[in-house]
Design goal:
The protein is built from 15 helices and no strands. The protein has about 400 residues and is mainly α.
Length: about 400
Amino acid sequence: MMNLDAPRPRLPALTSLRFFAALHVVFFHFLAFKIVSSEGWFGQISSIGYVGVSFFFVLSGFILVYTYAGRDTQARDFWRARFARIYPAFAFSLLLTGPFFFFATLMLNVPFFAWFSTHLKLVVLLVPFLLQAWVPLAALAWNSVAWSLSDEAFFYLLFPFLKKRFLRISLPGLSGLALACWAVSLAMSWTYVLRNPDHLQVIDADVLNAFWLNAVKFHPFARLPEFLLGMACGAMFVKFRRTAGPGGDGKLALPLVLAGLAIAATVAHFSARIPYTVLHTSLLAPAFAAIIFGFALQPRWGALLSWKPLVFLGDASYSLYLLHSFFLGPFFFTQTGVPRHRGVGWYFLYFVLALGVSGLVYRFIEEPSRRKLRGSPSRPALAGSTAVALS
């Protein structure tokens, strides 16, 4: 039986899953930048790689509840710990991507950068403070993938005030809350599809400067239900482990993981028939929650995900997520911005470089900075696992 107040071990399988979710986002950008073809099974899977961010939001809510349940951590200590977790690598990514962003914004006549060019002062104010997602047309500015960090910063602001409330809810109540969060998110997506406030003839990932579409995709209020769903599932997991024991035999884990994977595979197969905004946000959130819950039970058959090299890749996946786009240009684009179709060897070299640099950033920037910035807590707290969400 699990004591709510006892220290909880890390869940290395969930760390490894972060790597695969980040890799899915990388594959999506290969496709979005016309580096690879959309034909075949790889193209079909890559075309919905943006759902990896939904996985991160659900995982973030889940693991933060798991980590901090039963810990008497003050809000300012929690916020300092999260700042120490996300900001050093984020700041490094801004330094790395800044020269190209400002050059493209000021010197190139490219539609993607047009809004940033006319609102550059606002962009420079918003992005370093992780506020870009609050202004839909600024969400993809500077380092485009960092819009999700803007959302996560808002989630972190709310978490200390929500944690105890979630843990006081019964298991049936948490199930209902998770379902309600999913329903609210779907309602927002479907409302956009039915009303089409941007008056678009085609709604897909190639549309980048539609105000309301960007709001549905990137705004913190629009993505909050996924984080709350993850929190509800994290509270369910803590309560389940407290009453049902370790569950390491995989009896519950296997059906959960298989169901989640089956739903994800089915959605991927029929993705071309599903409205883009519905698929982009939380359609797969329950499937992701099932996969996360199942592997969190640490079944014996999932031991491969606890393999140390794979866990290290999961640890480095945050830097991979932030930096992977920076390496696409030198490898796969001409000086005029035309995509190059490279051989297999170039993709191998790209991943060697991207993963290698990400590992170095994790080891020599993320980890040392986190230790220095966290400082001493305001009051003693229980020793627990380190939150392993991407953000």
